Amino acid sequence: MNGADDLMRAARKVLDTNWVGTHTLPATGLYPHQWSWDSAFIAMGLRHVDPTRARQELESLFAAQWADGRVPQIVYDVTRDDDYSPGAAFWQSNQIPAAPDVPTTGLVQPPNHAWAVWEIHKADPEASTTSKFLRRLYPKLRAWHDYLAERRDRGGRGLASIVHPWESGMDNSPLWDAALRRVPDTPRHPILRPDLQHADSTERPSAKEYGRYFWLAEQYRDQQCDDASDSSFLMEDPAFNALWARSEMALAEIATAIGTDPRPHQDRVAVMTQAVEDLYDEHLGLFVARDVLEGSLVSKATISGVVPLILPDLPRAASVLQTVMGPRFLQSEPLMVPSYDVLAKDFEPSQYWRGPAWFNMTWLVILGLRTYGAGAEAERLAGNMRHLAHQHGFPEYVDPWTGSPHGTRDFSWTAALALDLLSTPYHRASMRPKSPLPAH
Ligand code: 9WN
Predict the structure, then answer these.
(1) Which positions are catalytic?
(2) Which residue, by CA, sits nearest to atom 16 of ligand 1?
(3) Residue 170 CA: which ligand 1 atom is closest?
(4) What angle do CA 400, 402, 408 make, to 5 degrees?
(5) Is 369 helix (H, G, I), strand (E, B) or coil?
(6) How many CB atoms lie under 10 A from the CB of residue 145?
(7) I need a labelling partner for 373 at 20 to 30 A (CA). Which of 4, 21, 200, 366 fits?
(8) Distances (CA, A) of 145 to 69, 85, 407, 413, 423
(9) Which residue has the CA at smallest separation from atom 12 of ligand 1?
(10) Which ligand 1 atom is at minimum distance from the Cα of 168?
């Protein structure tokens, strides 16, 4: 057995343990339901070892799509409703006409799904075609993207706005601090914290942050999640929009593959790549969030602002590359990419989205570095990512320099994306695993 085989076995074990027959839980204790962008990341890894399950992962998520096209942040397992809060009882999605039969949140998460669907298809085109995977998913993916374009372009610039920090997937990122200060921390609903039974309170968002999260969720729920009412939090996030644009590119490929016109998707990619430019911060040299309610940019360097490097033909790529390789992120040679500017006074190496390195974000940066010719740095990070994932039992996130693990363990996207990095051509060339990995 070599290191690659060991990692593959261990990663598969995590994914098998967290599999519940139709989809994979992010973690059986802390996150006992199906999460939207987790499922897409998980399926990116699963496609190398079990493409059938990868397809099921996305199909089950889209079975919970709303009639208005939105793909919910969480699809609840009601038998576990006391194990995570806010749960199905808080959202009561069955009261909302557009919601599906299964209980879900009304919020969404970053749209990385079409990208995953296309990669899953390419991993096993024969079975995918036989099962009409692309044909079934294409109209659903199109409805999802149309929802973002028609209901979430609240800034009117061709970008989607998020209405809650949870929608970014980077819940307590410093990008949201100033906007959240305007939000009351006194929801009517009791703030339950079952999460603290599974992770240390110093590694989770604070009580005050939770008060504001619940208040905002309550506001959105009480408006029937209609996207037409006033929102107290409205932000354009660079990673959310870059993932949408990357997925729109994939949708063009999917359209072509099933004999449909790809041009509407290609046109949207062009518009979005240009619109993302509006989020560029000249001083920091990377993309930042826009506070739509204030009409201003939030001048903070976070990993979200580096993610647009996954887009080819990005006009600012050279300067973003320079920034990520520079003192704010990679110059001190951390093992993985910090989630926040290491030069910032409030940088915290072990506090959730306020400094630690996450496996999904490092994976996205690796793809961006490869796209723009920084292959050596990409492979250094990929090697560390595989090693730390395995060494520490697939943690949720790690200290960027020491690699010490934080959050929950046996975390599904950590396992799935480490598995994905085992299957890259770069890795095959350098590690020569004994048994060749399945082609993709
Ligand atoms: C809220 C499931 C999710 C991830 C998010 C991560 C964390 C939830 C939480 O876990 O968020 O959605 O309770 O903190 O921040 O990115 O999708 O893994």
Answers:
(1) 171, 396
(2) 169
(3) 15
(4) 70
(5) helix
(6) 22
(7) 4
(8) 8, 28, 32, 23, 29
(9) 166
(10) 16
CA distance 194 to 81: 10
> Which protein residue's CA is at the shortest distance from atom 5 of ligand 1?
169
**Alpha carbon of 407 to ligand 1 centroid (Å):** 11
CA of 150 to the centre of ligand 1 (A): 26
Report DSSP state, residue 374: -
- Determine the Cα–Cα distance for residues 349 and 405; give it in Å rounded to an integer: 11
Q: Which residue ranges have their beta carbon within 6 Å of ligand 1?
A: 26, 31, 35, 37-38, 73, 166, 169, 171, 195
64 by DSSP, 3-state: which?
A: coil
Q: Is the peptide bond before 86 cis (omega within 30 degrees of 0)?
A: yes
Cα of 169 vs centre of ligand 1, distance in Å, is: 6
From 35, 170, 213, give the residue whose CB has the most ligand 1 atoms within 8 Å, as the site to mutate. 35
pTM here is 0.96
Q: Which residue's structure tokens are 């990868």?
A: 54
Candidates 420, 426, 350, 436; CA nearest to 385 is: 420
Token readout for 144 is: 């999802």
Supply the residue whose CA is at minimum distance from atom 8 of ligand 1.
166
Residue 373: closest CA among 321, 302, 334: 321
Cα(58)–Cα(422) distance, rounded to whole angstroms? 22
Alpha-carbon distance values, 321 to 115, 331, 436 (Å) = 23, 12, 33
- Give the pLDDT of the chain (440 residues) as one tens digit per residue: 578 999 999 999 999 999 999 999 999 999 999 999 999 999 999 999 999 999 999 999 999 999 999 999 999 999 999 999 999 999 999 999 999 999 999 999 999 999 999 999 999 999 999 999 999 999 999 999 999 999 999 999 999 999 999 999 999 999 999 999 999 999 999 999 999 999 999 999 999 999 999 999 999 999 999 999 999 999 999 999 999 999 999 999 999 999 999 999 999 999 999 999 999 999 999 999 999 999 999 999 999 999 999 999 999 999 999 999 999 999 999 999 999 999 999 999 999 999 999 999 999 999 999 999 999 999 999 999 999 999 999 999 999 999 999 999 999 999 999 999 998 654 444 443 333 333 33
